[in-house]
Amino acid sequence: MLNRSNMTLAAALVVQIVLLAISVGARTGREDRTVQPLWPGFKADDVRELVIADDLDNSLTIARRDDGWVLPKADDFPVNSDKADELLASIAGLDTGRLVASNPANFARLEVAEEEFRRKLSIASGDETRALYLGGSAGADTVYARLEGDDRAYLGTGLSAWEASTQVSGWIDTSYISVPQEDLIRIKVSNANGSFEFEPDGGTWRYLGLPEGEAFEDTLMPSITRNASSIIMVEPLGRVPLDEYGLAEPTVTVEVAYMQIVELEMESAQDDADRGENEADDGEDIVSYTTESYTLSFGTKRDDGNFVLKSSTSDYFVTVREYALDTFSDLSQADLLRVSEDEAESAPEVAGE
User: Fold this and answer.
1) pLDDT digits 0-9 by tens, 33-71
2) Does residue 228 sit in helix, strand or coil?
3) Which residues are CB-neighbours of 231 under 8 A, at least 6 positions away?
4) Are strands 194-201 and 99-101 parallel, antiparallel or unpaired?
5) HEC string of 164-182?
6) Phi and psi dihedrals of 158, rounded to 5?
7) What are residue 338's phi and psi, to 5 degrees?
C-alpha cells in the first residue's frame, strides 16, 4: 500500500512525463509546420520542355524558344506563352504545408501514383528531367501533388489538374481564318460537282453561273459565307506538305477575295484624297482599302475524323472538323436553283410523307 510520500512522488513523476510529452509534441509540431517548396530549387525560367500526360493516354509537348513557347511536334507552332508561364509559376508555388499521405499505398486513391494519375508533368530543366504528379482535389483551386521520387503527397493550392490540359486547343489560338463577312467580295467553290462563284449584290449575294431563266436559291449563302470567312482549327500539323495530306489534288478548294482597310499616315492619305482615290469630308478620317485573297485547300480525312486544310496565307497545315468542309464538298448547281411552284407540285411524293 502506498503511503502519502510515495503517492506524492508518483504524482510528480506523472506530471514530468506529461510535460515531457507536451514538450516533444510542441517541437514536432513546429518541425511539421516548417513549410518548404514541394520542388526545392525549381526555377520556372530554367524549364526548357514540358510533356503533359493524362490518364487517357493523351500527351502534349511544349517547348521554350527564344521568342516564346511552341509545339515542337508541329514545327514550332506558337503556344500561348502566358498560359505556359502561369502553369510553371503555379508549380513553383506548391509547398509542403499540407501533408495528406506518406504511405505509397494511398497514392492511387489520390491519383498521384506512377501508373494512376490525372496528370503527369515531365519537366526538363537544365540537365534534369523530373516528373510531377497531379491528382484529384479537395476543393476549388486545389490539387493533390507528388514529386517523383518523394514518398509524400501534399495538397497544393493555386492549381488544378485541368489547367495542365493535354488538348492542343487549350494552348493555342485556334482561329485559322477570320475575316468579317461584310468584307467579302468574291467566293469561288470548286468540288467534284464543278465550280460555283458568288459576288455580293447590295445586301444579298448573286450566283455568277446562274442559267438564263433560272432564279437563284440563296438559302445556303449564310453557311457558305460563314465557313469561307471563319475557320477554327482542331490542331496544327506542321509546315511540311506530306503526301498523306492529299493536297496534291485537293478534294475541295475555296477561293476568297475580301476588302481590307489600310491605315494611312496623314500625309499619304491626303495625297490619295487629292488624287481622288478616297473620299473624305472635313473632320472625317481618310481610309483606303486593298483587295486581299486566300485559297482554302481541303485534303484527306484522318483517322480521328477530322480533315486536313491548308490556307494560302498560312505556313501551317491544320486539321478541321467535318462541318467546316460539308457546306463546300456537297455543293451542286441543283442547290443553287430555285424550284418553281409548278415544279414543286409536280415532284413525286416520297414514300412515307
Assistant:
1) 589 999 999 999 999 999 999 999 999 999 999 999 999
2) helix
3) 175, 176, 177, 178, 296, 309, 311, 320, 324
4) unpaired
5) CCCCHHHCCCCEEEECCHH
6) 80, 15
7) -75, 130
